[in-house]
Amino acid sequence: MKVIEIKDLVKKYDDNIAVDNISLSIEEGEIYGILGPNGAGKSTAISLICSLLFPNSGEIKILGQDIRKNLKSIKRNIGLVPQNIALYRNFTAYENVKFFGELYGLRGKKLNEAIDNALEFTELLDVKKKKAEEFSGGMLRRLNIACAIVHSPKILIMDEPTVGIDPQSRNNIMQAVKKLNKKGVTIIYTTHYMEEAESLCTKIAIVDNGKIIVEGTKDELKDIVSDKKILNIGVDNIYNVNLELLRNVEGVIDISIDNNNVVITSSKDVNNLSKIIKEISNEDLKINDLAFKEITLETVFLSLTGKKIRD
Ligand code: ADP
């Protein structure tokens, strides 16, 4: 069953098109990743899906219903973990989750059980009487998630939930996402960390400049570049590299610069390594490093856009 269907969605801020004619559909049980650099339009897309913003045009259906007509009933099925932590710092963990539970209409015994379940799930039950202001960044992120799942939503939307936290807390969150998904929750997960998308997501849309550039499982995405190889050459002074000469080497498709590295995408079938080295070598330049890059989503993004996800 399709839980989310988006058709021709457009959102402009004055002349700036933040979401540029996006269409996608998300099946039940998926962890759907929206991967793209800062400013790609991820948060705007999430705000549109949650009806916090209204589109200029396009259509969004959630669980088969148009959000313009059935917002109230749809909202009960959605949990949102916003990018900016939305908590009351002088409330305890318990009180924060209670506030959100009540917003969703939970009361009495049902509410209390739901709060404890959400806090237990995010490993915060022991500290439920502590105020949020005493929490670390990672704990705040987890409490943010507890608030979003207290009403047991069918769909959980997480907008860059691991920004600015330590690796341990990030792992905890990623484990929690997997566990929720196993319980049947469909998840939409935006990130600019391609490792997160790779390890978590069953399907990934790579976005840039408000557009979906490509969509598929991580293996399908990697297949896009399977006929290419990417060579990374570290040099001591990038300004002494003659890019024009390199561009003319047989098989070279694209060249980009990453700090003091020249990153050359070329066709896999052409044996051009010695020619590349010959063209790059000159007396004013020392090569420090030379390696073929492993194919990752970062490589896919690089090969499709000519730039890195994180600059
Ligand atoms: P992401 O979440 O991928 O970082 P955003 O959706 O926040 O991207 O932003 C997409 C584009 O829309 C960017 O160019 C950003 O500057 C612009 N934008 C986002 N929010 C606003 C706003 N409230 N007013 C004007 N422009 C905005």
Q: What does it look like?
A:
33% of the residues lie in helices and 30% in strands. It is α/β, with parallel strands linked by helices. The strands form three sheets. Strands 6-7-8-3-9-10 form a six-stranded mixed beta sheet, with helices on both faces. α4 (108-121) packs antiparallel against α5. The longest helix has 16 residues, at 167-182. The two termini are 38 Å apart. Bound molecules: adenosine-5'-diphosphate (ADP). Adenosine-5'-diphosphate binds next to β2 and α1. Residues 13, 16, 18, 36, 38-44 line the site of adenosine-5'-diphosphate.
Keywords, please?
about 300 residues; alpha/beta; 6-stranded mixed sheet; 4-stranded antiparallel sheet; binds adenosine-5'-diphosphate
Unreliable spans are none
Measured by DSSP, the beta-strand proportion falls in 25-35%
User: Order of strands across the biggest sheet?
Assistant: 6-7-8-3-9-10
Structural class: alpha/beta
Ligand species: adenosine-5'-diphosphate
Mean pLDDT: 94
Put simply, the count of helices is 11
- What profile does the largest beta sheet have? 6 strands, mixed
Shape: elongated
Order of helices and strands: EEEHEEHEHHHEHEHEEHEHEEHEH
User: N-to-C terminal Cα separation, in Å?
Assistant: 38 Å
- The counted number of beta strands is 14
Radius of gyration: 23 Å
Helical amount: 25-40%
